[in-house]
Amino acid sequence: MEMIIDFPGGARVDAHFGPFTVATDQAPPMGQGSAPAPFALFLASIGTCAGIYVASFCTKRGISTDGVRIVQRLQSDPATHMVDKVTLEIQVPPDFPEKYHKALIRAADQCAVKKHLENPPTFEVLTQTVEMAG
């Protein structure tokens, strides 16, 4: 997969891939706050990815997702200010079948974003001079 990252102005940085554009910005005073910050999107990708697996689990079993939600909480290391714990609490309504609670957790654990954080890729950052089409 290839993404093109460009700089539309100010602190805006956008990612383009396939038919999609994901806009990011920084909060004032660095940016205008016109879009989520990149780190916020990263964090949202954890919960939304788990949510896809939870929704799929429910759909396959004919269970409504009405009243089901995930609350994501972060804990940061005071010394480094880095997130050191992410908690995903899957909240279900009272009529959600008790027999599926543990399976719901296992479904959320299948999240690809979470798996990549647990086994991170290597990174290579480089520069390349290219001629722009006129």
Provide a descriptive summary of the structure in words.
With 134 residues, the chain is α+β, with helices and mostly antiparallel strands. The chain folds into 2 domains: 1-36; 37-118, 2-Layer Sandwich (GMP Synthetase, Chain A, domain 3), CATH 3.30.300. Helix content is 28%, strand content 25%. It has 3 helices and 5 strands; from the N terminus they run E-E-E-H-E-E-H-H. It has a 3-stranded antiparallel beta sheet, with no helix packed on it. Strands 4-5 form a two-stranded antiparallel sheet. Helix 1 crosses helix 2. The chain is elongated. The protein starts with a strand and ends in a 16-residue tail after the last helix.
Question: Secondary-structure map with pairings?
Answer:
Layout: E1 4-9, E2 12-17, E3 20-24, H1 38-60, E4 69-76, E5 83-91, H2 101-108, H3 112-118
Antiparallel strand pairs: 1-2, 2-3, 4-5
Helix pairs in contact: 1-2
Number of discrete helical segments? 3
Q: What is the strand content? A: 25-35%
User: What are the low-pLDDT stretches, counting only 5+ consecutive residues below 50?
Assistant: none
CATH architecture of the largest domain: 2-Layer Sandwich
| Biggest sheet overview | 3 strands, antiparallel
Class computed from helices, strands and strand pairing: alpha+beta
Going across the biggest sheet, name each strand in turn. Answer: 1-2-3
- Overall form: elongated
First and last CA, distance: 26 Å
Mean pLDDT: 95
Helix content: 25-40%
CATH homologous superfamily title of the largest domain: K homology (KH) domain
For the record, the count of structural domains works out to: 2
Reported by name, the CATH topology of the largest domain is GMP Synthetase, Chain A, domain 3
* CATH level-1 class of the largest domain: Alpha Beta
Would you list the SSEs in sequence order as H and E?
EEEHEEHH
Secondary structure: number of strands: 5
Please compute the radius of gyration using only Cα atoms.
Answer: 19 Å
